[in-house]
Write the structure tokens for this entry.
Amino acid sequence: MRYCLWFFTVSSTLLLLSCSSSKSVKRFEGMRWESDGLYPVSLNGKTGFINASGRLVIQPQFQSKGMLFSEGLSPMGTGGGSFGYIDKTGSFVINPRPIGEVGQFSEGMALVSTGFREYGYIDRSGNLLRTPKLAGGKEFSDGLAPAGYDGFDGYIDKTGQFIIKPQFSDADVFSEGLAAIAVKGKYGYIDKTGAVKIVPQFEAAGPFSEGLAPVQVGSKGGFIDKSGRIVINPQWKMAIAFSDGLAAVGDDKAGYIDRSGKVVIPLQFDKASMFSEGLAPVSLDGGRTYGYIDKSGKLVINPQFGDASPFFSEGIAMVTLGGKTGYIDRKGRYVWNPSN
């Protein structure tokens, strides 16, 4: 399992939310592009939070880098490897404790490290779920979370019990009722009972989104439907999940296809990421600067940022400029000027 604590921090560069990437396609899969209405900012070395209009809601006061809110809580460190969780008033509702790594809440649970290469889950009261000593895990989805134990991956429920026993060499979160798993180096999909619905046969497999999932056959990426039928032939080095009806695909250059597999935005970008709120971040100069295109492929925000995230659900995106982080609206106007 490629264990991931999914989070997004304020730093000199944006943290790309993935365990893998390609030369031309930037992967943000696994990230929920919502932030409960609050966004981390850094001012004079301290972290606070703004709303979507750029107004400070939680004054900069925290020493550690900020992470997104999820389910009303955000992880926050106090130094020395101690982390807790704050609510939207900025008050700690889960008191800081020595935890090396923390993740976002999902379905009332958050993945945290409990020791050297050991992980567990806490609830919203900070209580540690009674589980075996896990080697890693990912977020809960559809009531289950992939977790590693004794060299294999399975799925636990919210009581901490393995509902699908550890038996896979890799396992991902459930999406649209199915989860990608690996057996002997080949990927397929299971349902929530653990039944194999798509026989392991692919070199790699991504989450289902809008009814399709990216898979790798040999060295090429394409898409399958929920029956496992290849509906878009593998033909690119990289393909990521559909969003807003389009999917980024790429070889040395990246572009976008529709659900029929037709290239609707030519492969012309050095870097390209997922669409969100009708816009997608792209780069034309090898990743030195990023701007945004609309679904017609037109540049609507000129390349100027050192890095750029997809847009959050409230219509703002995190960008960097000169080593500082800010937020822009869909017109490219700053709602929070870059700061650190």
